[in-house]
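Aim 2, interim progress. The first record below pairs a target sequence with its structure tokens.
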Amino acid sequence: MGSMSPIHWLLVIGIAVLLFGGRGKLSGIMGDFAKGIKAFKSGMKDEEETPAPAAQVPPPQAAAQPAATVHAVGERPRERA
């Protein structure tokens, strides 16, 4: 537990190189990341502003015949006069 394995040392060295390894590398990486996020947000905003056209459904037409009547169990339908 007290010593670090070679993989841990490689990670530490990699992070140190990333942070201190050159002028503007970290800020360049973060700038590219920020540009990607902004592009994603603007893409999502464009989709919200231009919604898909709603499907137009014609209104239902009045039925020519009256609807069937539901009768209780055992009840006979009445004769029409």
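The second target in this work package is listed in the same format:
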Amino acid sequence: MESYLKEALEIVKAQASVRTMTEEEITTMVRKLAGGLRKLVQAVPLKMTLHVRRLILKKQLRKNPLHALSVESHLKY
């Protein structure tokens, strides 16, 4: 499965956990997010992508150190 789709599914899952969503809303949101993430990643230069990933990891590390370590192992530098 594409990483964009996985990320989109995680975001929609989090959204659906805080409010009721119809199948159509979920499908539409996943499609739009996956497409948007794909475009964003393709438009961002590699150095910037690595910098953003490191910033995200630092933020996650502050919030939940154990989860951040598992996320770090999945990041490809």
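The mean pLDDT is 78. This observation will shape the mutagenesis plan for the next reporting period.
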